[in-house]
Amino acid sequence: MPKPYLWAMNEKLMARSGGRCELCQKETALAVYPVPPDAYADNEVAVCKTLVSQIEGVEPLNPDEWRFLPEAMWSEVRAVQVLAWRMLNRLKSESWAAEALDILYLDDETLAWAKAVGEQAEAGEAIVHKDSNGNTLQNGDSVVLTKTLDVKGSNLSAKLGTVVKNIRLVEDNPEQIEGRVEGQLIVILTKYLRKQS
User: From which residue to which does the signal peptide run (predicted)?
Assistant: First the structure.
């Protein structure tokens, strides 16, 4: 996974960016982000360090911090166009991002570059599990069921208000966790639970 590095900002990139983030245009601490794959020339973009952590999936994606993308996508810099396209795709559940994607035009070669890495795999986007109230869940948390659930393939019924301790997150599905109810390991949908304080 590419890592940002500050010390390698060459003169060409510094002149092109004017010392500003090439995505949001803020004057702030910048990192050089090489837009994968490395096979493409001029693939480096000057990006805010705070945005890089979301691009790489180190921090959860915060849609409100990306509302500048509909402007950034019109950049004349191909690497910025590619990065904007990828981030808009990751945010396409937001109406503003979907609308921007509908009008964004990339030439065939730039679009091929944008699609050369999977939408989420490019950044190794972190899968974030959230409870019914939007609280982030972690392995080992305790949760409370907000609905009585019948367990498929069993006569077990997990009652409303049941506390499930020491949960495990289902790695590839942000809508599921695993936990023990009456000694039986079951999969529970995150929309039917809340994190215990």
Answer: none
* Amino acid at site 188: I
Alpha-carbon span 146 to 79, nearest angstrom: 45
In a domain, 83, yes or no: yes
pTM of the model: 0.57
Calculate the CA dihedral of residues 70, 68, 94, 138 and round it to 10 degrees. Answer: 140
Does 163 have pLDDT greater than 60? yes
| CATH number of the domain residue 187 falls in | 2.30.30.40
Residue 156's Cα: distance from chain center in Å? Answer: 36
- Decide if 43 is inside a domain: yes
The helix (H) or strand (E) run that includes residue 169 is strand 168-169
Amino acid at 75: S
